[in-house]
């Protein structure tokens, strides 16, 4: 893919994300996305077959960015705290993506449910790796399963990040991260 094509797609992603975050995917038109991006309507159809294809590509693009950040957290000394911090940082940088993900992920049945299920599984599998390491070290509380802990942490961070962005924007990322870490400290205790 050429640099120009990549830049155009990023411009379309940014415009679509802004509009979709404000009003939801169903309420946004191709004309509005093109106008927001400052491109001709045909540019969208040249790069994507439809608005739906653009939204699906946007979802995949956002999850790729988030997954990359979470994978980098795996190398940190305190990888659980780094994972929490990276996820909060992503939601702070892309709050409209969080809104899109929440609105579409739990809409049943949603238009992008199949894609979102796969994307959710990608992210949760990274979190699951962290939970598995804690479990192997005997640091998960008795009776807590790795899969449950993974989904719970992902869901908790998504909802807390949205709550932070909408209702408590005056709080710093570090304050929110520290609060989350207080919630999950039990994960660091020996059985």
UniProtKB/TrEMBL annotation:
InterPro entries: Homeodomain-like_sf, HTH-type_TetR-like_transc_reg, HTH_TetR, Tet_transcr_reg_TetR-rel_C_sf. GO terms for molecular function: DNA-binding transcription factor activity; transcription cis-regulatory region binding. Keywords: DNA-binding. It comes from the Bacteria. The keyword Cell wall biogenesis/degradation does not apply. Residues 29-48 bind DNA. PROSITE patterns: HTH_TETR_2. Residues 6-66 form the HTH tetR-type domain. Signal peptide: none annotated. It holds the Pfam family TetR_N. It comes from Lentzea aerocolonigenes. PANTHER family: HTH-TYPE TRANSCRIPTIONAL REGULATOR PKSA, HTH-TYPE TRANSCRIPTIONAL REGULATOR RUTR. The keyword GTP-binding does not apply. This is TetR family transcriptional regulator.
């Amino acid at each position: 893919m050429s640099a120009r094509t990549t830049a155009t797609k990023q411009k379309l992603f940014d415009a679509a994300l802004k509009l979709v975050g404000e009003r939801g995917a169903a309420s946004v038109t191709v004309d509005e996305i093109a106008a927001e991006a400052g491109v001709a309507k045909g540019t969208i159809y040249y790069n994507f077959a439809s608005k739906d294809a653009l939204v699906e590509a946007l979802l995949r693009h956002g999850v790729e960015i988030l997954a990359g950040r979470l994978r980098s957290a795996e190398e940190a000394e305190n990888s659980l705290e780094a994972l929490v911090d990276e996820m909060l940082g992503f939601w702070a940088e892309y709050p409209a993506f969080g809104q899109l993900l929440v609105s579409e992920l739990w809409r049943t049945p949603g238009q992008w449910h199949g894609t979102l299920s796969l994307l959710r599984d990608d992210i949760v599998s990274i979190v699951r790796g962290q939970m598995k390491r804690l479990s192997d070290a005997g640091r998960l509380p008795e009776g807590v399963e790795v899969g449950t802990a993974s989904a719970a942490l992902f869901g908790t961070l998504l909802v807390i990040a949205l709550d932070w962005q909408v209702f408590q924007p005056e709080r710093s990322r570090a304050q929110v991260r520290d609060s989350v870490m207080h919630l999950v400290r039990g994960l660091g205790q020996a059985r």
